[in-house]
Amino acid sequence: MWPAFWMLGGNINSVGWPKCGEIDIMEYINTDPKTYGTAHWDSNGHAQYGQSTATTDDYHVYSVEWTPSYIRWFVDGTKYNELNIANGAGSTEEFQRPFFLLLNLAVAGDWPGQTVDESKLPATMYVDYVRVYQLTNAPATSSVTLQAEAANVNNGMTVEACSEGGQDMGYIDAGDYLVWNNINFPTSGAYTIEYRVASGASGGTISADLNAGSVQLGNTTIAGTGGWQTWTTVSKTVNVNAGTYNFGIYAQTGGYNLNWVRISKVSGARTALASTAASGPTSATLYPNPVVAGERLQTEPELVGSTYQLIDSLGRVVGQGTLNASGLEVSALRPGRYVLLLTTPTQQQVSRGFSKQ
Prior knowledge:
The chain is mainly β. It has three domains: 2-120, Jelly Rolls, CATH 2.60.120.200; 144-265, Sandwich (Jelly Rolls), CATH 2.60.120.260; 296-356. The chain has one helix spanning 12-15, and strands spanning 2-9, 22-27, 34-42, 46-54, 62-66, 70-75, 78-84, 99-106, 144-147, 153-155, 158-161, 167-170, 177-185, 189-199, 204-210, 215-222, 227-240, 243-251, 257-265, 296-297, 307-312, 317-322, 328-329, 336-343, 349-356. The strands form seven sheets. A five-stranded antiparallel β-sheet has the order 4-3-2-1-8, with no helix packed on it. Strand 15 and strand 16 form a beta hairpin.
């Protein structure tokens, strides 16, 4: 079986695949307990980039954040994959055009194999809701992505081909550094510095500074990623006074590759684009499930104090409040399927489905 939640470029009928582009928000393969998130595009032939994350056999919220600069994949609010598409990096121009959504459950295929176990049929993919949000009130200040190979000064690093398209900096040793000249921080305040890194070893430590070290922005730890072209993003939030600086990164230790650095002003509001929570549980177990009249729906004690919404199969809010230690009273609900949306005290969002009998 091959369930999927995905998108295709709206110009597929005129340019074909993969030139239209494809964004796979969620794919499962048979009984493999993983969710796969992948992008496909044309770069003188089929190009793709994807990652997977372990998931359980339950309801989950699968989402992507898609901006002109990046595509990020999430399961239950936790990011596990990111692709840089800023300025068409790696021939990714397809992802600057409109796409349309698809949901389907395929039986057999190139990936799951052509052998069909008919004892598993009929099969159903349950979907509680699909929501699309638009970024609003975006910060007036810009986010700038600095490609490692485009630095004005390179001391010690080696340019090499990158699996995400374009080039990255490799063979980084302690004491190596890069500098980009005339980087503008338009307003004073908090900025997020993101590093796109890969490590086939145990990782290392990278730091950032302004004007040849006159302003230190601190260290960021990089963990091993399992491969020199297996990429992840690590970040640090710093405070910077408005001005134009020569921005540098310094290898406190070696043991990793660097694709790019992104600097973003921490400000502006978003309408429910998925985000990684600061801390707290990433899942919830509901019991009893199904629940019958006279029973109270229970979950983990650490979720007590979370605000909740109950969503019916038509997407209507049929209940809301704050979860207490005695559980959730659901006797007034009609029989059917529901989704419990929780927002924890740390602002993490958790979603679980249940049945009322």
